[in-house]
Amino acid sequence: MAEVKKGGVFFMTNNELKKITLWMPLLLFFFNTILMSCLVEELLDATEQNYGFLGFLTPIFALISFLYIRKFDRENHSYLVRILQGLNCFFIIFPITVFMIFVLAFLK
């Protein structure tokens, strides 16, 4: 599985790295979907605020996923990777836009 280099440092071969590259962005996509649903529900609901602030964590997870894909999937431009990158851009832009709208609404 992993080989030992001199000095005891582990490293993975390129084939092993390709096998594990997609699970991390998909896991972050799952978290982003849950957190974005919290934000959307908070925007649609007129009752007291419960957990809508968790939706503002999505840009952090999306940026981590975006950079992870850019670092490890440079040569792999499959359809799934393109969709994940597009959704990462959406998960970064949407909460920031919502925050800016609320800031502008309170400034008036």
Radius of gyration, CA atoms, in whole angstroms = 18 Å
Outline type: elongated
What's the helix-strand series?
Answer: EEHHHH
> How far is the first residue's CA from the last residue's CA?
60 Å
**Fraction of helical residues:** 55-70%
Largest sheet: 2 strands, antiparallel
Low-pLDDT sequence parts: none
Please identify the structural class as seen in this structure.
Answer: mainly alpha
- How many strands in all? 2
Tell me what portion of residues adopts beta-strand conformation. Answer: under 5%
Mean pLDDT: 78
Largest sheet strand order? 1-2
Number of helices: 4
How would you describe this structure in keywords?
2 strands, 4 helices, mainly alpha, elongated, 108 residues, two-stranded antiparallel sheet, 68% helix
What's the arrangement of secondary structure elements?
Elements: E1 3-4, E2 10-11, H1 14-20, H2 23-44, H3 58-72, H4 79-107
Antiparallel strand pairs: 1-2
Helix pairs in contact: 2-3, 2-4, 3-4
Describe the structure.
The chain has 108 residues and is mainly α. The protein is 68% helix and 4% strand. The chain contains four helices and two strands; from the N terminus they run ββαααα. A two-stranded antiparallel sheet has the order 1-2. A hairpin with a 5-residue loop joins strand 1 and strand 2. Helix 2 packs parallel to helix 4. The longest helix is centred in the C-terminal third of the chain and has 29 residues. The termini are far apart.
